Amino acid sequence: ELAAGWEAVCPDPTTLLGTAPALTDDTGEVEGLLRRRSEAFATVQEHYYREPPRIERGWRHHLLDTDGRAYLDMINNVAVLGHGHPRLAAAVARQLHRLNTNSRFHYGAVVELSERLAAALPAPLDTVFLVNSGTEANDLALRLAWAWAGRREVVAVREAYHGWSDATDAISTSVADNPDALGTRPGWVHTVPAPNSYRGAYRRADTARYGQEAAASIRDLTAQGLPPAAFIAEPYYGNAGGMALPDGYLAGVYEAVREAGGLCVADEVQVGFGRLGEYFWGFEQQGVVPDVVTVAKAMGNGHPLGAVITRRDIAEHYRSEGYFFSSAGGSPVSSVVGLTVMDILRDEKLQENARTVGAHLRSRLLELADRHPLIGAVHGTGLYVGVELVRDHQERTPAPEETAAICERMRELGVIVQPTSDRMCVLKIKPPLCLTRESADFFVDTLDSVLREGW
Ligand code: PLP
């Protein structure tokens, strides 16, 4: 079955929406297991819906729940290839039969994955550390910078998310109720305003000022004797809105950081690996080359895998003072996953698909915005799209109750889509990169019919 390939195993299941056959669970075991597990399973993900769907399997850009209902998955920035990819499943099965162990050995796949990653990045980024998650990758990036600069100050962008370890949590404000309440954060954390061209101080009028002011505040810090060891940002305004950074934003900020002797870290955990369509990496859109790049999510298509890619001198400096070891980071199976994901992205032209289907999706959403005043704006590049839901176009007041109700209703109609936060109410659309034009239309038509119900 696996050898038969993707299409044979799994034709585009859009047609199955609402009609998918129930999964075989004669014994009730699956249902029972899920219920038991849900009591012990502590995660914020559970709170997106009043009653979280119990997902049992996935096919391409669809999910099936235990009642056999199919959902279009518009939020999965992890499973970029889609769910249940037969080629990936076969590669993992083969490697599990051959070897899986900790990362103390050199074997073909780890060498090849490191080389492939380095080759996918511009010079001089040529040295790779393999880890298990985005949090670990960003944690290590901070350590590299602290060792390199010999000091601790870090500048991060507000409304960003970089992970949940002590250090990455300290620089993440997107999950805080009030991102301006920085009082409880460690003294080495400094932030610059979110460059949000829809809601921020300068809106669309003068977006260049975001970069100029961020660079100025970095120079101020340096003048006060607190030069940053690192500046870290997603090279796309991802977690808070799904929109590109203002043109030239990173170039100006990176210049100020480098004058201070600090390292520029690009967190590509969400946007890297072709999601932006035109670009394989988010930093390309900004025309810069970072000193450190962190990746995860897409790299493993859901398997725990991440990496830090940096310059040789930075890596060697860290190794001369510090220590890095990860038992499972870059294990044989993880390395095979990483390599196969890169092969499939290339062979199935998924970056190209993100470009064309993403453009179609955005143009259809813009048509919808003309008809539905609740849509304040449509942002995005490739298959990372943000739809702002607002109560009025002048003040751009977020619409949290409406947004939550719309997401619930979309789910009833077979679409999983979720907002950023109550403060911002942006539908963050980041589906698997295999999304088809037909499924993009299904999403827009469903949103249209929900909005017609009246909000
Ligand atoms: N960085 C960004 C931009 C993210 O979106 C996330 C996760 O959402 C992380 C880092 C943390 O990655 P992980 O959940 O793999 O630890």
Task: Please give a structural write-up.
- The protein is of the alpha/beta class.
- 38% of the residues lie in helices and 14% in strands.
- The protein contains 14 helices and 15 strands.
- The strands form three sheets. Strands 4-10-9-8-7-5-6 form a seven-stranded mixed sheet, with helices on both faces. A four-stranded mixed sheet has the order 1-2-3-13. Strands 11-12-15-14 form a four-stranded antiparallel sheet, covered by helices on one side.
- Helix 4 crosses helix 11, helix 7 runs parallel beside helix 8 and helix 12 runs parallel beside helix 14.
- The longest helix has 22 residues.
Structure described in brief:
The chain is of the alpha/beta class. 38% of the residues lie in helices and 14% in strands.
What is the makeup of the main sheet?
7 strands, mixed
What is the H/E string?
HHEEEHHEHEHEHEHEHEEHHHEEHEEEH
- Total strand segments: 15
Amino- and carboxy-terminal Cα gap: 47 Å
Mean pLDDT: 88
Radius of gyration: 22 Å
Strand neighbour order, sheet with most strands: 4-10-9-8-7-5-6
Percent helix range: 25-40%
| Helix/sheet category | alpha/beta
Q: What's the total helix number?
A: 14
Ligand inventory reads:
pyridoxal-5'-phosphate
Residue windows where pLDDT falls under 50 for at least 5 positions: 1-25
Please indicate the percent range of residues in DSSP E strands (runs of 2 or more): 5-15%
Gross morphology is globular
Protein name: Aminotransferase
Family: Belongs to the class-III pyridoxal-phosphate-dependent aminotransferase family.
Organism: Actinacidiphila oryziradicis
